[in-house]
Give the backbone structure.
Amino acid sequence: MRNVALLGPPGAGKGTIAARVAAELHLLHLSTGDVLRDEVARGTELGHLAQGFMERGELVPDHVVLAMVRERVEGREGVLLDGFPRTLAQAEGLAQFLPLHAVVYLAVSKDEVVRRLGNRRVCASCGAVYNLVTQPPKAGGRCDRCGEKLAQRPDDAADVVARRYEVYERDSRPLVEHYAQQGKLITVDGARSPDVVASDVIEALRP
Ligand code: ADP
Ligand code: ZN
């Protein structure tokens, strides 16, 4: 079994693609964004610590995220990391407790991610994700699965998206070169439909 990380700008589709790839290849899907949002929703100590950073579009401090990931994956095999590592320090920390075999980079332009995040709506109740343009809910503004009212993720507001993208360029993009140098990088064009992107990723990772 192999350990894989998914890299790409906010809005690249990491969550959607990771869920499909993990199901198909029987990997354990760990989304640091989802874990952090859950901690915030439950009002835990970690959630309180993380909330302000997330609302501003900043990264949660490396040592916090590293501890959170370590606790969940140390010693496991067949892990798919989604949204982690996001800094060189996280990559170096991770290498101390989990070897990565491949890193998939979902390449998507800034214009495309700004468009996608502006149109994203989520169901706070069941976690379903929609896009007003490409995957609209059937009944205006309500979740297809559970009927709850859909909302915009607070960090999908335009000014926060702009900040997230800047932080991505500054802190996370250097990881592309970092993993390319290690010969682990697989670049996939993420500006296509989720079906096509997911099947490309699955093909690239299949043993
Ligand atoms: P996106 O990839 O679209 O920005 P995520 O759901 O992955 O969205 O992450 C949402 C927020 O959670 C980030 O903006 C950041 O504040 C925090 N976060 C998630 N993963 C990490 C990480 N590896 N390191 C630091 N902060 C993180
Ligand atoms: Zn729902």
Observations:
- The first strand starts at residue 4 and ends at 7.
- Residues 158-172 form the longest helix (15 residues).
